[in-house]
């Protein structure tokens, strides 16, 4: 059996170390989460909500976090990524926020079938949802609230600008969550004005 010299082993070890350094530490992963809980609203325990399906821009259906670079250009960060689907996380957080703000746990998220009477269905068409580290996050969306019979009761368009309060991508992701929380507040406020939700 042929034995390799110590010098050859050292060369192999050095090559492996260089390859590891070239790869770098790897991407960072982030998850969209609900914002900080506010005051507990008046309970509407019998109110039933169905959320979705929600429309989402195709350019955001990728793992890399999108940031603005000027008015028209977007940059996708290869090493800063969403841990899952941004579309799915958006819908999940929106449903959680609506339930919390309207004081009900009866919230079904598409494609799950509700196991309770649905009073309102919320549909959101996201037009833009990106920002720039150290600056702000923009969330533009058209949304519709329909009754249990499918008839449209409210149709609105919202534009939320949320400043990025902390440095780097963690601050940017927190601003995404805060912008979504504000959108949920606008939708919940609209639902609360409807006769069946009072």
Tell me the layout of helices and strands.
Layout: H1 6-23, E1 28-30, E2 49-51, E3 64-69, E4 73-82, H2 86-102, E5 107-109, E6 120-131, E7 136-147, E8 152-163, H3 168-192
Parallel strand pairs: 1-4, 2-5, 2-6
Antiparallel strand pairs: 3-4, 6-7, 7-8
Question: How would you sum up this structure, described in words?
Answer:
30% of the residues lie in helices and 31% in strands. The chain contains 3 helices and 8 strands. The strands form 2 sheets. Strands 5-2-6-7-8 form a 5-stranded mixed beta sheet, covered by helices on one side. A 3-stranded mixed beta sheet has the order 1-4-3, with helices on one face. A hairpin with a 4-residue loop joins strand 7 and strand 8. The chain is elongated, with a radius of gyration of 23 Å.
Classification by helices and strands: alpha/beta
- Number of helical segments with 4 or more residues: 3
Query: What percentage of the residues does DSSP assign to strands (E)?
Result: 25-35%
Which consecutive residue ranges, at least 5 long each, have pLDDT under 50? 6-22
* C-alpha geometry: elongated
- What is the mean predicted local confidence, pLDDT? 86
Report strand order across the widest sheet: 5-2-6-7-8
Quick rundown:
The protein has helices at residues 6-23, 86-102, 168-192, and strands at residues 28-30, 49-51, 64-69, 73-82, 107-109, 120-131, 136-147, 152-163. It is of the alpha/beta class and 198 residues long.
Summary tags:
single chain; 198 residues; alpha/beta; three-stranded mixed sheet
């Amino acid at each position: 059996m042929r034995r390799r010299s110590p010098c050859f082993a050292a060369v192999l070890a050095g090559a492996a170390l260089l390859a590891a350094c070239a790869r770098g530490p790897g991407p960072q992963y982030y998850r969209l989460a609900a914002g900080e809980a506010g005051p507990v609203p008046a309970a509407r325990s019998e109110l039933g909500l169905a959320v979705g399906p929600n429309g989402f821009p195709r350019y955001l259906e990728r793992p890399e976090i999108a940031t603005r670079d000027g008015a028209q250009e977007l940059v996708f960060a290869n090493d800063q990524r969403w841990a899952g689907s941004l579309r799915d996380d958006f819908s999940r957080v929106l449903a959680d926020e609506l339930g919390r703000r309207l004081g009900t746990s009866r919230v079904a998220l598409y494609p799950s079938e509700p196991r309770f009477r649905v009073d309102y269905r919320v549909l959101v068409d996201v037009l833009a949802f990106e920002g720039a580290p150290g600056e702000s996050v923009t969330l533009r969306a058209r949304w519709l609230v329909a009754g249990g019979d499918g008839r449209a009761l409210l149709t609105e368009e919202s534009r939320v600008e949320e400043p990025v309060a902390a440095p780097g991508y963690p601050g940017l992701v927190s601003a995404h969550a805060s912008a979504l929380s504000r959108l949920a507040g606008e939708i919940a406020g609209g639902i609360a004005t409807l006769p069946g939700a009072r």
